[in-house]
C-alpha cells in the first residue's frame, strides 16, 4: 500500500500536470503562434488543445516531470542523466518533426520549470491530498 508521502507526491504531480495543460493552452491561445510548417491540426490536436506552437506543451511537461523526479526520487547519477536527456529529447523531437520552433521548446522548458516551482511552493499536505481524493 502507498504511504501518505507517496500519495501527496502523486496528487501534487497530477495537479501540476493539470495546471500545465491549462497554462500552456491559455498561453497558446494568447500567442496564436503557428509552427514552422503549415500543418493542419488533427482531431487529437484539438482534443488535447495543442493547436498552436508557443509554448511547446510536450517540452513543458517533460521539464516539469523530470524536475519532480530529480527532486523527489533517489536516483543514481546515470538515471539522473538519462532523465534530463529524456526531457531534452522530448522537447527537441518536437522541433525535428516540424511542430515547434526552437524558441517554443526553450520557452516550454522554462514554463515547465516555473510550474514545478509553483507547485513546490503550494505543496499540499497529506491531509489536503486525502481530502481532495475523498471528494472524487
UniProtKB/TrEMBL annotation:
Q: Does the keyword Membrane apply?
A: yes
Q: Which key words are in the record? A: Membrane, Transmembrane, Transmembrane helix
Record InterPro entries: PAP2/HPO, PAP2/HPO_sf
Q: Which SMART domains match?
A: acidPPc (SM00014)
User: Phosphatidic acid phosphatase type 2/haloperoxidase domain location, by residue?
Assistant: 9-120
Q: Check the record and name the Gene3D superfamilies matching this protein.
A: Phosphatidic acid phosphatase type 2/haloperoxidase (1.20.144.10)
**Database matches in PANTHER family:** INACTIVE PHOSPHOLIPID PHOSPHATASE 7, SPHINGOSINE-1-PHOSPHATE PHOSPHOHYDROLASE
Q: What is the protein name stated in its UniProt record? A: PLPP7 phosphatase
Q: What is the organism field in this record?
A: Todus mexicanus
Q: Provide the gene name from the record.
A: Plpp7_1
